[in-house]
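Table S2 (text version). Query chain:
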Amino acid sequence: MSRDSERALFLRRLARLTLLFWRAPESSGARILLAVTAFFELATVGGNVLIANVQRRAFDALQLKQALLFFQMAALFFATVIAFLFVSTWRIYVRQMVEMRWRRWLTDHYLARWMSSQAWSVAELHRGEVDNPDQRIAEDVRNYVASALGLSLSLLAAVSTFASFAGLLWALSGDWRIPVAGREVYLPGFMMWVAILYALLSAWLTHRVGRRLVPINFDRLRVEADFRFSLMRFRDKVEAIVFSRGETHERVGAVARFERVIENWWQLIRAQRNLTLTTGAVGNLNNAVPLLVAAPGFFAGWLTLGQIAQARIAYGEVSGSLNWFVNAYQEIAAWRASIQRLLSLAEVFDATRSELAREGHVRIRESSRLRLSGVRLTLPDGRVLLDAPNLEVAPGERIAVLGPAGGGKTALLRAIAGMWPFGSGEIAVPPREHTLFLTQIPHLPAGTLRMVTCYPARADVFGDERIREALALCDLDGLGGELDRCEAWEQVLSPSEQQRLAIVRALLQRPEWLFLDDATSALDEGAERRAYELLARRLPRAALVTATRRPSAVAHHTRRWLLVAGADGRVLLKAA
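Corresponding structure-token output:
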């Protein structure tokens, strides 16, 4: 793809990302605030024009020794500065209000796409393509929104500044005569042409020096997130790591990731150093240009001190507006890196949705019972896991799915849950709100024990007495007084306690369909027997589908499905 094509594609994607919010109904209030912010930007430019005029008249009064006019201009100058300060402060405040609304909506948009039933498919289908989606949603959305508003409003200010001061600068230098080799050269709007040529040269030079910042910033976000993730993973798995004597291994890995952070940091600060030298030289030299150009005219007597002061201000404003690209280059580079990371994440979401909508995947439909019709489950690369021709589970039945480790039991439950689309055939499943899945390692979210116990329902759905009763039934009486205690519960509770807590969730939520994936593997036979008896007694009408390797669990079910090797070597799921 050519550079022009890449640029056009980037602009189309940027427009799509930006319009997501501004076309949404929720943006109506933000559009009003944005209009107010734009008005304040223009008012700021108007204040600069007024200050330039006041300064010209004040300098002329000073040169002509007109004291009264000078002090009148001084009073007007201070009044303008106070109004300017008020407008500038509210301009920033209102812009931040817009920024927060935009960021909140875009964050919700990405969270809805990431934290969905397709999240597992996104990770499985596009493993390695998108790093750290959490960091992209948390930081890249923030950086994108802040820079989008800041850059667009500063560009608006630059355009309006140019429109306001260009005519003034053209008029001021319209009849300037420049002495060259003993002759006077006349060029209409001479200072305007100087500003334009200087801005073009500055933009070209800045881009040549600073264009490496985009890939460096892209990598910076990735390596920083990788390093932070390794520290979080150590915190979450600290018990298992220390038991395994693996702390040295983890520390070496963390240091290696941090070395990549340092390497990227050196690349970044070198690139920023070169760019800062370039923009600093451009800016400092530009400050001297209007004085150098105007000085001969002043010495010749056909320019006043006030005219030079006003021309200097006008040149500075026009040149500053034309050099917007130069002054904003570092922020543009970081902004573009955030855009690319957000766009690539959105593309993965879109690709996953398209792939799951294609023919050749397992079809899911809602029904009053569980039915597998011609189901074949495969790996993402097409290798066959198992075949399940025609099987059915009626409400209230209890099915044990038996097979060796790695035989496809977990994939079967994932397919029933709508997480495993790879394969063909159709699965009729009960309504989502009537089902509950218990996994071998339950998820224990951060928060109070009450939140952990009620998950995925809200913490206020069940009363304290009901929660304590369910805990006691599962031999977790000691936790009854800890409902409001916040802990990293996955580190506090043993695997056996975690699995019993998952049984508590089933007792509280009373699903009509309960699916267990080795959910009692950490329990001894006595605890396992009591758990199944408890489920049978407390949820007598619930259907139970259990994937297990333990023969002791079979006695608590009315039927069995077996994973057996067929004649062609493929695994077949059949009723026993």
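Notes on Table S2: The longest strand covers residues 384-393. DSSP finds 19 helices and 14 strands in the chain.
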